[in-house]
Specification:
By secondary structure, the protein is α/β, with parallel strands linked by helices. Helices cover 55% and strands 13% of the residues. The chain has eleven helices and eight strands. It has an eight-stranded mixed beta sheet with strand order 3-2-1-4-5-6-7-8, sandwiched between helices. Strand 2, helix 2 and strand 3 form a beta-alpha-beta unit. Helix 3 packs across helix 4 and helix 7 crosses helix 8. It is elongated and about 70 Å long. The model has no long low-confidence stretch (mean pLDDT 96). The structure holds NADP nicotinamide-adenine-dinucleotide phosphate. NADP nicotinamide-adenine-dinucleotide phosphate (NAP) binds next to helix 1 and helix 3. The site of NADP nicotinamide-adenine-dinucleotide phosphate has 29 residues, from helix 1 and helix 3.
Length: 271
């Protein structure tokens, strides 16, 4: 485990990772957070006992690992402020879209790992795509795995552009699941259930279906076909969706998300 860890940005994602580190036994005194918003700093100090500062400074030079958890649009400015102090450390960025080439330019070090998490990371049930630049050592990767493990599953990728696809699938993916749950809740309420009842049924169905895929080892397609008998109720629903070409539309939507991830990288990654 990296001995001293610094976070740039102390928001949701940083808090999730800090919570995981503390529960693994990492000493709070070995964690520094740079967070401009006083209320957030006070909350971090009170909840975890970590050190929190309003701006970057020489204390950052002691960090073995620097975790970038700022919004993509503030990354460049935050990086230029921290640059004089962080060049010896391994850099781990969870910022959506910002390419490692930009991070290398802004910080002047090649030891950069990018992670693309999703919101269930906040409760330890996320999945993150990870990409390491060639200068990152096996030991560096191990340090990243230890830090990120408490956020959920990890998947290493061999090419950085694949992170844009990860963004389209799992990064934005929780919203797709919420969107379908919303539709199921609305339908259930229209058909006579209370909204609470309909939502309970929709949420439990998503959780159960996901766990069934995982534990059965079957593909989602096989499991769908198994519960779709010709002329039955599921068949009626699936036929209605196929008539509307819903699967093709859904695939188009993921391409749109990936295009947007690529655009954000161009937009916020400029020197
Ligand atoms: N939340 C998720 O599940 C999730 C999933 C995938 C990827 N991500 C990525 O993770 C990154 C962080 O997301 P988040 O949800 O944790 O955002 P967040 O809660 O808004 O946290 C960002 C924090 O950085 C602080 N900050 C702003 N400028 C700074 C500076 N110059 N130096 C240091 N800190 C600065 C912000 O402070 P102020 O509030 O004062 O501006 C804020 O507390 C984003 O790039 C996001 O795309 C998040």
């Amino acid at each position: 485990m990296s001995e001293r860890i610094a976070f740039i940005g102390g928001g949701n994602m940083a808090s999730a990772i800090i919570g995981g580190l503390i529960s693994q036994g990492h000493a709070p005194g070995q964690i520094d957070v740079v967070e401009p918003f006083a209320e957030t700093r006070d909350k971090l100090k009170a909840s975890y006992g970590v050190n929190a500062q309003a701006e970057a400074g020489p204390f950052l030079a002691e960090a073995d690992l620097v975790i970038w958890a700022v919004k993509p649009q503030t990354f460049r400015l935050a990086a230029l402020q921290a640059r004089p102090y962080v060049q010896k450390a391994l850099q781990l960025s969870v910022a959506a879209g910002i390419r490692s080439d930009s991070i290398v330019n802004w910080l002047g070090t090649q030891r950069v790992v990018r992670a693309m998490p999703n919101t269930p990371a906040l409760i330890g049930k996320g999945i993150s795509g990870l990409f390491a630049r060639p200068a990152v050592t096996a030991q560096d990767r191990q340090a990243v795995v230890q830090v990120m493990a408490s956020t959920g599953e990890l998947l290493w990728l061999d090419a950085e552009e694949k992170l844009d696809t990860v963004t389209a699938l799992s990064g934005s993916g929780p919203a797709y699941a919420f969107y379908f749950m919303e539709a199921m809740t609305t339908a259930g309420a229209e058909m006579g259930l209370t909204r609470d009842q309909a939502q309970q049924l929709a949420v439990a169905t998503f959780i159960g279906a996901g766990e069934l895929v995982r534990s059965s080892g079957e593909t989602p397609k096989v499991l769908r076909q198994r519960v779709t008998s010709k002329g039955g109720t599921t068949d009626a629903a699936i036929c209605s969706m196929e008539d509307a070409d819903l699967q093709a539309e859904f695939i188009n939507a993921l391409y749109a998300a990936r295009r947007r991830a690529q655009e954000l990288g161009d937009e916020f990654g400029k020197a």
